[in-house]
Amino acid sequence: MNRKYFLFFRYRVAPSLTLELRTNQKEIGKEIGEFLFWNRQRANPSKKIRLSLVWDQTRKQYKLATRSFRLCASKVADLFPAIDFHVRSESLSRLPTRFFPIHSAGLVKNHRSILLVGKSGIGKSTALSELIRFGFLGLSDELNFLDLKTLCVFPYERTWVTESENGKIVKEDFSRQVLVRRKIGKKTGKPIVHYYLSARQSKRNRASRPQKIGCLYHLKMRTARSKRIIFLGPAEIFNVIVNNEYAAFLRTSSKKPVEKKFEGLLRGLFKALPVLTDKLSGYEVRIHPKSMFSQVISGQSVSS
Predict the structure, then answer these.
(1) Contacts by 179-184 with C-beta closer than 8 Å and gap 24+?
(2) Residues 64, 148 share a domain
(3) CA 267 from centroid of its chain's CA atoms
(4) Whole domain around residue 43: which residue ranges?
């Protein structure tokens, strides 16, 4: 009688939330830990996201199965974007209402967290990678959670993403990377390739512990050459946080449990708003597309 044996790998992906991977190959678990979720856990937590990723020897393909979809691919790395998207969406619906999700790049400087908020493609990840060279430490380049009780910022613990044009890494020469997606750049019209960095590259300049939020930058583009920095009041800060893409995902969901969760998040944000705006400095930064957010933010941080 042939019996199937499975291995279980656990990775912390968000505060008080773990991904449990079931697989039949040890190499699959190592690849996930190297290019997706670097924080390996040994304990068996109560709150976890389950998925199965196995190698089918008969059909010579990898099979990914979650509670909502199934996918197959000839390479395990081709399934990483689907795993990433699934874990992010599950994190939004399963985390306690004390953690408010913000689509942002997170940084730490002088024991204070800094959030760069803006639309997709505005340059948050690029600014994060450049600000690290100015002495900042990184959190997440995609999703960060604001603890409404302690006002600390917790990252979505996935490896960082870098981009290159025409298949050539333009920021650093990384020895190994895994393809995320390809698209055409809006500014240059050239093909842009996004890669997951290895865990070694992501962990090297990552903040070791969460810090209280100190500053929020709302990134925007403008046609004028000169930069413009506008101070944000409590109402503007509230609108930036509530209208970020992940909060909008929860707000527009048709599922009643998700709707109730967003209502709980909104109530918690209202309660924390007086203390939050007292501790938090908010700015709207508008620059020309050919300028760099990192230069403006690093100069602003030094002056403040």
Answers:
(1) 179/77, 180/80, 180/81, 181/81
(2) no
(3) 24
(4) 7-93
